Amino acid sequence: MSDLAKPHIKVIGFDADDTLWLNEVHYRHAETQFCKLMEPWLTEREAKKELFRAEMETLHLYGFGAKGFNLSMITTAVRISNGQVTAETIDSIVELGLELIQQPLELLDNVEKVLDRLSDDFRLIVATKGDLLDQERKLQNSNLENYFHHIEIMSDKHEASYRKLVRHLDIKPAEFLMVGNSLKSDVIPVLDIGAEAIHIPYHIDWEHEHVADTSKILPYTTLDHFHDLIEVLYV
Amino acid sequence: MSDLAKPHIKVIGFDADDTLWLNEVHYRHAETQFCKLMEPWLTEREAKKELFRAEMETLHLYGFGAKGFNLSMITTAVRISNGQVTAETIDSIVELGLELIQQPLELLDNVEKVLDRLSDDFRLIVATKGDLLDQERKLQNSNLENYFHHIEIMSDKHEASYRKLVRHLDIKPAEFLMVGNSLKSDVIPVLDIGAEAIHIPYHIDWEHEHVADTSKILPYTTLDHFHDLIEVLYV
């Protein structure tokens, strides 16, 4: 188990949320609580739909992360209550955001063990989108910081952002491998710049990350579990 | 005017908000509008004080930037209205945040001319705190991106963050010069790691950046205008 299966790879980038640690489940929990507060006006299903619509309207302004999500909840509450939502409910919504930010960090299975093994043979980095302070806090709480040479917090994960990242790492795209749970953010743009990608799906996906047409995606590897990385990367 | 006055300096870091472009004035404008909405309950002076208190309570959770500021306004409105604030007013507060985020960018005097000159002889970087997406957007709108080799968006500007920055730049602290409008963020921690700093005060200062006791600060240069940098850096 000590020969490298992909000796050309110099740097492995890891997505963070739902690749290294739990995230989406906390957002879904906050969303459910929010829908409960909206019960006087809409069903859970409708309230979720309105919240998603508000999020998409302001995503280009707020960016990813708990604060923008929280502000979108407030906008949605005012909107769907037709201006009838009380200050008390607004206060509860603000609390939901603060709880989300302070959520204890929970690593996914085998993450530390695998990073420990890989860090002997590769330069490991974190490449995550989202809120700067949120992600820094999570990384600190993860106790994984020492495995990573570099933390890249990106405002979005497009081809251009990956090109910039690879240039910054001073490597060729073909020497970069990205590992993550989102086809849209961690796989497609990475393949499109000529790098490699491994998809480790997580069972809950944010609607924004859904890819409707997967027929034109370049070849990539899909794994069921984080520890399967060892089998892919070593002969 | 072509000999370098500080030939040991390899990299110059620039703070962004109120060093390269206007910022605090937009926050103060939003604050004034907010205080008007709070008139049924408190005077402007008292409302400002309550807002600042709310900001300080959550700064470690929200971080710097417009979204945290906006959420603090909402918390303050609920609090000082004793739960009487209407959904309509909450909506207006959310709008104030969105306006702040979409504020057109206005460069300070001579910034581009000076950066153009300095970029011939130094590696220039931006080292700013605040919201990732906000700062990236402002930099793009500034048309200054090409003058900078690197953009560092920091969740806070402490000694440790500057140490990390200098290590990342692969230079010695003595080879780094920081330019900014905040004694607390751009000068003191920079001097404390053994680098140099130039203070260019801006006439409006955020209360959080105030330094009570300036008697123990190591030596640094203060300039009145951005273009005075040329006189300091060239013989």
Topology:
The structure is a homodimer of 235-residue chains.
Chain A lengths: L10 E4 L9 H14 L6 H19 L3 H15 L6 H15 L9 H8 L4 E7 L2 H11 L7 E5 L4 H11 L6 E5 L2 H10 L3 E4 L21 E2 L5 H6 L2
List keywords for this structure.
Rossmann fold; 46% helix; DNA polymerase, domain 1; 9 helices; 235 residues; 2 domains
How would you characterize this protein structure?
Two copies of one chain form a homodimer. Chain A is built from nine helices and six strands; from the N terminus they run E-H-H-H-H-H-E-H-E-H-E-H-E-E-H. Chain A is an alpha/beta fold and 235 residues long. The first copy, chain A, has two domains: 11-22 and 106-233, Rossmann fold (3-Layer(aba) Sandwich), CATH 3.40.50; 25-101, DNA polymerase, domain 1. Chain A has a six-stranded parallel β-sheet, covered by helices on one side. Chain A starts with 10 loop residues before the first strand and ends with a helix. The mean pLDDT of chain A is 94. The A-B interface holds A 58, 61-63, 67-68, 70-71, 74-75, 77-78, 81, 83-88, 90-91, 94, 97-98, 101-102, 131-133, 136, 153, 155 and B 58, 61-63, 67-68, 70-71, 74-75, 77-78, 81, 83-88, 90-91, 94, 97-98, 101-102, 131-133, 136, 153, 155.
